[in-house]
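FAQ: What does a ligand-bound record look like?

Like this one, built around xanthosine-5'-monophosphate:
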Amino acid sequence: MKLNPGVRERKGDAAFPVEIYKAKRDGGNMNELLLVLDFGGQYKELIARTVRGLSVYSEIRPGSTGADEIRNLNPIGIILTGGPNSVYLPDAPKCDPEIFNLGIPVLGICYGMQLMCHMLGGTVQPCKKSEYGRVKASFRTQSVLFDGIGEQGTVLMSHTDFVSKLPDGFISTASTKDCPHAACECPSKKLFGVQFHPEVEHTDNGRKMMEQFLYAVCGAKGDYRLDDYIDTQVRRIRQKVGDQRVLLALSGGVDSSVCAALLSKAISGQLACIFVDHGFMRLNEGDEIESAFSGMKLNFIRVNAQHRFLSRIKGVADPEQKRKIIGDEFARVFEEEAGKLGSIPFLAQGTIYPDIIESGGKLGATIKSHHNVGGLPENLAFAEVIEPLSGLFKDEVRALGRKLGLPASLTERQPFPGPGLAVRVMGEVTREKLDIVRMADFIMCEEIGKLKNKPQQYFAVYTGTRSVGVKGDDRTYDAVIALRAVNTSDFMTCRYAPLSHRTLSRIASRITNEIRSVSRVVYDITSKPPATVEWE
Ligand code: XMP
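The answer part, i.e. the structure of the complex:
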């Protein structure tokens, strides 16, 4: 749920105080824990997510987390992530050296392996030849990590340093043409390292290696299941809320929708959901959201504020100003509606785990500090914030939504900016331009919907440029629509999707035929960086 539609997503460093996990455990979360210590690698979430996919609960903490704190958390194992630094440089991030003496199994991945070797007396130095991409490797299958996989395989490498000398007590367990120690271990101390990335699909049997680490080395029970999550949360929400009421701002995005469904299961009848339709939604979206939720007992209130929003941004062309005005207006409408409901002690929000990792770990600590609710009116007093999805990754949230019976149109929804189509119309927004981009977007989605492999995000943009065309015998001077489709794993970076010419030409032909005032369609082939996903 993005309560403040004006605020763009914020990314930051992971910092997640130990109190939160302890509080969660005290609240009943007794799953075994695998700790992921973060050294700045781009795959940290993928590592944590892969571990959860193998039925072991995982959390990400800063690489500097102290040994005492870790002992307190009592994890069954630790994974040290990759990272962009060189361990031998003075300011490179280090871990507490004590963690190697805790008796807890450690798996270092890429930088994590280099760090472990460096800190335990090995040598790390620049590669003579860096390795990037898929590389052939040989494995010593006596290693428990590689048990059950072949002696040869392909792994994903991405490194400019390598371990040239192993610490005492370590043996080499894999190699590539240019990397003599592509994996190593000290089995008696349960310390393992891999220079490659087992967490990505490009590494053959990578998942199997992670599984070996979790089950054969750490002795995991595999007690983490999403099914249990619903029961635990329902119990906890009921305990916390008692017979009081809860307010949820429902945007129709995946997170707030799943949050609404979960709350409705837990405290049906005590929930009020305000859905502000600002008029910048995609075709039929407002009605879809209404029909999905009006069947549930959650006091769904739809506020049709299209006219208000449009008149507030009339004449405004600057993107940031547009976002700000929409955010302010959203807060105002929300406040008015909430006021009509009388005082409600609890505010619920669809914060998910990556939001917490990205915003520095302030789980529900304060309403105003979180980017999702940055626009909440200050005089709305809530005694407490409820964030029942705060332990889940996005795909877990989608799976939970499916289990709770939400339709695929909601659970599989693409990311959509809070200000909606208003930031997909360049420059001043008018009703006519919105109608055009909404229809173009619908056509594009319909056509891409037929493809087997869909990009992660795709939409149409009203570019604000007009161009000359010819329709029938008439010369036209009409709108130019841009199509954007991207592949990404985290939306922080992306590559444009290489849609086939056949698909592109079908979309272009439908848009120019079915929308009278469009003369031309272009395809955006820029990656992020340097461009962003959205145009504004
Ligand atoms: P950018 O344009 O920053 O977008 O590359 C990255 C991802 O974030 C989405 N996005 C937003 N999401 N509120 C949101 O909740 C916003 O204001 C917002 N702006 C961009 C965008 O669609 C993409 O998936």
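Follow-up question: can I read anything off the structure? Yes, for example: The first helix runs from residue 18 to 26.
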